[in-house]
Amino acid sequence: MNADGCWKCGQAPHDSLFCRFCNTLQPPSQDYYRFFELDRQLSIDLSDLQRRYYSLSRLVHPDHFARGTPNEKRFALDATAILNDAFRTLRDPVARAEYVLREEGIEAAHDGAKRVPPELLEEVFEVRTALEGDAAARATLASSLDRFRALRGQADRELETLFQQYDAEGGRDTLANVRATLDRRKYIANLIEELEAGLPSPGFL
Amino acid sequence: MSDPKQIDFSGAGDHPLSPASQTASHHTPMSDLLQIDFSAVREPKIVGIDLGTTNSLVAFMDLTGPEIIPGEDGARLVPSIVSLNASGETVVGNAARELLLTQPERTVYSVKRLMGRGAGDVQDELRLFPFRVAEESETVIRLELGERTFTPPEISAIILRQLKRNAEAFLGEPVPRAVITVPAYFNDAQRQATRDAGRIAGLEVVRLVNEPTAAALAYGLDKRKTGVITVYDLGGGTFDISILRLHEGIFEVLATNGDTHLGGDDIDNRMLRVALEDIQSEWGEDLSADGHAVQLLRRAVIDAKERLSFVPATSIQLEFRGKKYEREITREVFEKLILDIVDRTLGPCRSCIRDAGVSAEQIDEVVLVGGSTRIPMVRRAVEVLFRARPHTELNPDEVVALGAAVQAGILAGKVDDQLLLDVTPLSLGIETLGGTVSKLIHRNSTIPASATEVFTTAVDGQTNVLIHVLQGERELAKDCRSLARFDLKDVEPMPAGAARIEVRFLIDANGILNVAARDIRTGREQNVEVKPSYGLTDEQVEAMIQESMQMAESDFHERQVRDARVEADRILSAVEKAKLSPAYLELAGDEKRQIEDALRQLQTVYHADDHLSIRAQMEALDKATQGLAEKMMDQAVSAALKGTKI
User: Fold this and answer.
1) Alpha-carbon torsion, ordered B62, B67, B73, B78, to 10 deg
2) Which of residues 345-364 of B touch A (CB under 8 A)?
3) Among A139, A138, A26, A28, which residue's Cα sits nearest to residue A85?
4) ipTM entry
5) In angstroms, how far is CA B544 from the centroid of its own chain?
6) Which chain B residue has its CA at the smallest distance from A79's CA?
7) Crossing angle for the helix pair B94-102 and B291-307, nearest 10 degrees?
């Protein structure tokens, strides 16, 4: 990560948060997986991730460098911002998959999540009509909401299988499937949000 | 409470004593040894400050734990009230509280509600304040006190300076740095205004800490190693709710919510309005325009409110211009009166539970913070919502300042087993085409947090790009709070869309936004000019720091002139007296003339505003009267030998 060696003692290049020779905080890696010292796998053990997050926070948080040099303060702030961004991304399966796809150069199609999945065309049309209708029409949407929630759950399970497949075999075909499943899931999730906003609230908790 | 002269070995251990103090100690008697000042070899303390709507406090981390620092009068709370007295000096705290009654139009309270706001935001409540708002208060409010105007950060700085003085007197050493608490739901402008206040007061603000999180730190947490706790903080002017996960000394905030315009003030104002109407129907007289009467009545309703937390019924009493008003009020009536105010805290609580991803049953403990949580109805509402009996062991007025001192200890390296991971309360976004907001950092993201966005130009040869940054949850820019406009300047002129400027938005551990930009093609840092939508610019803050330093200097100067005049008075009267002694008559005409000249010159510079020339003339007079003094001494001695009195 640091081809020129440690910024402080100038020792040989290394690949860790702290210099192996003088134990000084180094400019942080921008790579989320590398930061957590994890292989780039799509399936992640969340309790292990949380443990790593807490112990890394203890190491790099700006609170511990309040009395440090300006360089150390800057690196602590940068490192902790990346650590927090990385934790937020990796703990969420969808955000994590999006991150890996981006790193692998598979960009989201511009309107990927806007295209109606073909098998849902008819139902989506009915839902949209009801959403624009009166209260009685909107009340019929409760069952659609349940069905779309089930579909979202199904997409999550599909993603899980694809994650395992990619982690075992790799392959860009699998990633392309991940991409398509993510777009479909995003479309359904947006629809659920619209339905939830359109339906009378079921009350608190 | 520890003795302020106590030697603190905690810092001294890391540093060898300087040779000077070692030699000195050889000759120092035992009694002085106990007073050796280690401040030269020890880092100055960082204090923790709770800059509250109603009261402010300062605390420090003692060897045994956090301690509140009392003022010279022994009071632990400094009322957040500032008054400008008749001679133009600012008065803070309890003294200003008295002036609020006699000169309400020259006195400010609850200024925290005006921090980081424009006049347009606070029209409603300004009607209840006795002071006036000056023109040109759109981006920062300017308050007219007598012949001067102050911005809210300047008023807050006056309070902070008092706390700084209290801490310095108590600790016996300079206090240059502080942790200051802010409501968790404060936006960027309100946080910046608080940091500006610290700078104007001559404090380096090492960290802004959210009040509910500070309270959680103060509650310490060896009590429970892991678990989920909620902090419900209803203060004088602000309401916060935070949910935290505790894990072996790490305090991870899961979500926060609140209302920066909801607190005990609202209850006071409600009661005040009702009492004013009541008096009008009884006396046939509207007192609301009489600042003195309103402040007397305000204090009466606050007293009644506070008593109702302990007794089921009390009365509001006012004596004004020989008339007497007395109204019985029961807790039941009081609760009906404030029901909707208490209810307003519940919506943010529910949102916070949802955002934290926990259920009410999963919350192990609830902590109450802020004076308004003494109201039994508030406690009941919290119990019902969270299904847990809340903690009230620590004084709700002091717990935030104590927590700020703990965080100061963490930053000073004195506390190493605890770590706070806080969140940003509001989403951060940029305005896109069509006036919608594109969110970059979502609310409840752990801070520091960052987001990167690439910008380009829309027309050929365009040399600057304007980015409008907002805070809030709504979809449209007009419904969010404008934070600032960032102007990327000196962009290389190119065809439209060819420039690629990467902008990094970073919310630091204070919850304050920092922006840096880089030209991707050249890798060069891009010039960014910040135009804050609310609050002071850096230049304005610098000017205020200068002004406050000059004011401190002019105070100092005034004192020096006054001291010099006192001494001049003494020497002038001594010389006038000496002129009546027989010794004076024996002086040569020349010498007498010299004395007369020196006398006249001292009298001339006496009224000038320059202590140096006063002192120079005093010296000249002293020299001119040396012969006279010797003669008088000789005569006194020979008179004494003869046994006669002169």
Assistant:
1) 130
2) 350, 353, 359-360
3) A28
4) 0.86
5) 15
6) B448
7) 130
